[in-house]
Amino acid sequence: MGSSKQPLHIGILSSPGLGHIIPVVTLANRLATFHNVSVTVFVITSGSSLAETEILKSANKSKMIDVVEIPGVDISNLIDSNTKIVTQLCILIRETLHVVKSVISAMKHLLDALIVDIFTTEALPIAKEFELPNYVYIPTNAWFTAMTVYCPFLDKEIEGQYVDQKEPLKIPGCKPVRPEDVNDPMLDRNEQDYREYLKVHGIGFCLSDGILMNTWEDAETGSLKALRENDILKAIVKSPVYPVGPLIRHDQQIIDGRSGDDDGNNSVLNWLDKQIPNSVLYISFGSGGTLSSKQLTELAFGLELSHQKFIWVVRPPSEVGADKSFFTTGNRGDNTPEYLPEGFLTRTKDFGLVIQMWTDQTRILSHPSVGGFLTHCGWNSSIESITNGLPMIAWPLYAEQRQNATMLTEELRVAVRPKVLPTKKVVEREEIEQLVRMVMQYKDGKELKENVKKLKMSAEKALSVGGSSHDSMCQVLKDIEKRSIH
Ligand code: UDP
C-alpha cells in the first residue's frame, strides 16, 4: 500500500475464547506489521480469562491495533446444562449482534472493511448494511474449509450418521474424507451443534466477499484448486479464496496466566542448550488435550523404551473426553506426578524433561536441539512444526484434528501416525517406541525430514514479499481499497 496515503482501517470480529482470539490477533499483527493496515479488533467476550486479557493487552501495544471489547449478553435463559459448547457460542454471538452493530455504527474512525471469524459469520449482514467489503477468516486449512462448505450438501446426500458410512465422504475435487475423520460437530447429526455448524460455518463461510485461510498454495494445491475451479464447489463458495498463511504467533505471550519467561521456561531452554541438534522429541497435546490414564501410562513407557531425548508437556488424565483437562497436584516420591508410572522421572532423568500443564511451545519448537514433535494435530501446532522443519507423530484427539492428521501423514507426508485412532483404542508402548524411532532417527525419518524441510521453505517463500500468501493479502487489500466508500 502507498505510504503517503492514510492506512486502510479494517475491523476484525472475534468470537470469545482464547482459541478464537489468538488467530484473530495473529492476523491483526500480520496486517499491521507487514501491510501498514490500521486494525480494530472487536472481541465479543464472555467472562474473559486472564489469558484473554493478556493477549488483548499485548495486541493493544501496537500503535496500529485497537482492541474493542464487546461483552456478550446474558443468555442464561436460552441455554441449559445440556447445551453443548458450539451451540452456546452461536447463541451468545447471535444475541450480541445488535450490540456489535451499534459499536460499529458509533465508530469515529470509519472502517474500510470487516473481517469476521468462523463463529461470527452471522455478523456479515451488518457489514453489508454499512456497505463494507467483508471477509471470513478461517484459521485453518483449505481441505477442512472445502468439507465444511460442502457439508450442507452432504447433509442432503447422505442418510444416517457420517461416522457409520462404509465409504469415505466425497468432496468435489478434493481428497475424500474418511468417516472417522469428520470434525466433532459432524459426529452426531441429531445434535443442535451439528445444525449450528451447518448454518454458521457451512453456509456462513460462503456469504462474504472472500475467504481468507491460514494455509498456503504449495501446501494445499489440490484443495485450493478445487475451491476455485471445481464447478460444484465454485458454485457453492462463489467468492474468491485467499490463502494468507501460515500465520503463527511469534511474540512471547502469556497464556492462562503462565508466562513463558518464568524460571520454568528458562530452565527448559537451558536444558535444550545442552542437547545435540535435532535430538529432542517435543510432546504436547495443545491447549487442552488430555489422554486416558491407561494411554498416559503407555506413552510414558513408550518414551522410556525409546531412550530418545524428550520434553513432554503432561496433563492429568481424563476419562471423560480428550479435551477435558483438570488439575491435580499430588506426586510420587521422586516428584513424578501421581498419574505417571512410579519412578518415571528417576528412570528418565538423563534423557527426558517433564513439564506439567503448559510451556512456551513456539520457543521450544524453534530451538535447534528439537528434532520432532508428537502432536495432537491442532492446526496451529501443525504449522508451528512445519515452519520449524520438524517431522511429526500425528496423535489426533478432537475437533478437526483427525482430518489434519490424515493430511499431514498421507498428503504432505511429514508425519507418521499410530495404526489405531488414539481416541478409539489405546496405542501400546511398543508401537510408540517404534514411532519415536521412525521420526527421530535419521535413516528411518529421512524422507519425512526432507519433506518437512521442503514445506518449511515453501512456507517462508509464500510469506515473503512477492510470495503467494503475501500477494494474496495484497490482493485483498487492493480490493478493499477499490471498493471502500471512505
Ligand atoms: N501452546 C503453547 N504451550 C502449550 C500448549 C500449546 O504455547 O503447552 C500453544 C501452541 O503453540 C499453539 C496453541 O497453543 O499455538 C494450540 O493451538 P492448536 O491449534 O495447535 O491446538 P488447540 O489448542 O486449539 O487444540
Automatic annotation (TrEMBL):
Top-level taxon: Eukaryota
Family annotation (CDD domains): GT1_Gtf-like (cd03784)
Keywords for this protein: Glycosyltransferase, Transferase
EC number(s) recorded for this UniProt protein: 2.4.1.-
Enzyme category, top tier: transferase
GO MF: UDP-glycosyltransferase activity
SUPFAM superfamilies membership: UDP-Glycosyltransferase/glycogen phosphorylase (SSF53756)
Span of the signal peptide: none
Recorded family membership: Belongs to the UDP-glycosyltransferase family.
Listed name of the protein: Glycosyltransferase
Species name: Solanum tuberosum (Potato)
